[in-house]
Amino acid sequence: LGKTMKNCYRELGMLFLFLFMGVLIFSSLVYVFENDDPDSTFITMLDAYWWALITMTTVGYGEVVPITGFGRLVGAICATFGVLVIALPIPIIGNQFGRYYQMEQRSAKLQERLGAGVGYARPGVKTGFKTGAVLSNWSSKASKDDTS
Prior knowledge:
- This protein has helices at 2-7, 9-34, 45-57, 69-87, 89-114, 132-147.
- The protein has 148 residues and is mostly helical.
- Helix 2 (9-34) crosses helix 3 and helix 2 runs antiparallel to helix 4 (69-87).
- The longest helix has 26 residues, at 9-34.
- It is rod-shaped and about 75 Å long.
- It starts with a helix and ends with a helix.
């Protein structure tokens, strides 16, 4: 999971950027539309920021809601935008995780198959194959022949 997150930092960065921009835009809009209504629960701009963040990332908590027609329209668009912003990078990150998981499984199977041959390698020879010592001797003979 750590390697996946490390390689998907661009996608995660874009997720947070879009989320932050959406919170700024929707909180500003809902505050402008709800500010003039005396029954509004958006007392400060920070209330609107919190509402937009909660609406975009979850289903909301219901204590602070827009009451005007335009405020409700902004709320519906905000919730839809939040679902789309969070849902779009998930397949990319999931596919990357699947690739790393497959690589690790293949590596484990290869190590399991070649496990008996590891004991044949000499110090300094970086292979797990039984023929590693033979190949390394061949390559050292070939390099000696090249120099002479």
